[in-house]
């Protein structure tokens, strides 16, 4: 039984949707509308976000345990954006029995490989963002979106961002600072689709290329006209890519 607040829509094989550090479950609304006709879409607010309670533990493993509870022992396709992609990778590593396939969009792989001073600077910057998300959401959304994103798209990203609470945001930031997923990648065998916005200035193509090179069973698609939130910025193309990939992925 999960403690997390979960948005549910659709019918068919389960598709678990995991949001990023500056987002929330509602950011998946466009994808749930487009994919709910073929999949049972489950989009949790991660601990400390939206309508979910704060985390009971610290670190990425604690978040993964909460995510596993959402599935109640039933395997699923797992789709994550940004930190959600890192969570999906950790989930596949810890609970491969529950992960049928992976879709990783504009992923981060963590920052533990960086020098301590650089990670500390990054965390201080994130702490400032965490405390000011309500007032800086539109500014931050403009940094996340592609250069040619419309004002409506930027406002939509900002709306979902404002559901992030400082407690959840900082628990995720610390998990990113403490994690380096690169050593795990060779052991993650699930079929994987990598998606990357062509104008992603947050994590970008370098991370997607690392995933493509090191995951045993991965393919890559670049989403034209999108930045770091392609599931919102180019919702139709994103959903089409996910649908086509999952239709080719065995359920067992």
Features:
globular; 252 residues; 44% helix; Rossmann fold
What does this structure look like?
The protein has 252 residues and is of the alpha/beta class. It has one domain: Rossmann fold, CATH 3.40.50. 44% of the residues lie in helices and 15% in strands. It has 9 helices and 7 strands. It has helices spanning 29-35, 60-71, 83-94, 116-144, 151-161, 166-178, 204-214, 230-233, 235-247, and strands at 6-9, 14-18, 40-44, 76-81, 99-105, 192-197, 218-223. A 7-stranded mixed β-sheet has the order 1-3-2-4-5-6-7, sandwiched between helices. β6, α7 and β7 form a beta-alpha-beta unit. α1 crosses α9 (235-247), α2 crosses α3 and α4 crosses α6. It is globular. The two termini are 23 Å apart.
Q: What does the secondary structure layout of this molecule look like, with pairings?
A:
Layout: E1 6-9, E2 14-18, H1 29-35, E3 40-44, H2 60-71, E4 76-81, H3 83-94, E5 99-105, H4 116-144, H5 151-161, H6 166-178, E6 192-197, H7 204-214, E7 218-223, H8 230-233, H9 235-247
Parallel strand pairs: 2-3, 2-4, 4-5, 5-6, 6-7
Antiparallel strand pairs: 1-3
What is the highest CATH level, the class?
Alpha Beta
The major beta sheet can be summarized as: 7 strands, mixed
Which regions have little confidence, pLDDT < 50, spanning 5+ residues? none
How many β-strand runs? 7
What is the topology, as strand order, of the major beta sheet? 1-3-2-4-5-6-7
Total number of distinct structural domains: 1
Average pLDDT rating: 94
The secondary structure category is alpha/beta
Radius of gyration: 16 Å
Beginning-to-end CA distance, first to last residue:
23 Å
CATH topology: Rossmann fold
């Amino acid at each position: 039984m999960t403690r997390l607040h979960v948005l549910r829509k659709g019918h068919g094989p389960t598709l678990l949707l995991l949001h990023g550090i500056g987002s929330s479950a509602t950011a998946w609304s466009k994808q749930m509308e487009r994919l709910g006709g073929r999949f049972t879409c489950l989009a949790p607010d991660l601990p400390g976000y939206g309508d979910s309670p704060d985390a009971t533990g610290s670190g990425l493993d604690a978040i993964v345990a909460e995510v596993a509870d959402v599935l109640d022992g039933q395997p699923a396709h797992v789709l994550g954006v940004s930190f959600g992609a890192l969570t999906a990778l950790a989930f596949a590593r810890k609970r491969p029995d529950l992960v049928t396939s992976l879709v990783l969009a504009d992923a981060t792989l963590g920052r533990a490989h960086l020098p301590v001073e650089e990670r500390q600077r990054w965390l201080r910057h994130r702490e400032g963002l965490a405390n000011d998300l309500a007032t800086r959401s539109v500014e931050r959304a403009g940094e996340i979106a592609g250069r040619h994103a419309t004002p409506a798209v930027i406002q939509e990203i900002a709306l979902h961002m404002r559901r992030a609470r400082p407690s959840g945001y900082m628990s995720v930031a610390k998990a990113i600072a403490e994690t380096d997923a690169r050593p795990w990648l060779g052991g993650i065998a699930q079929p994987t689709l990598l998606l990357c916005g062509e104008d992603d200035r947050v994590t970008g193509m370098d991370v997607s290329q690392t995933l493509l090179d090191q995951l045993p069973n991965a393919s890559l698609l670049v989403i034209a006209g999108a930045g770091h939130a392609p599931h919102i910025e180019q919702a139709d193309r994103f959903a089409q890519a996910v649908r086509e990939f999952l239709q080719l992925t065995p359920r067992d």
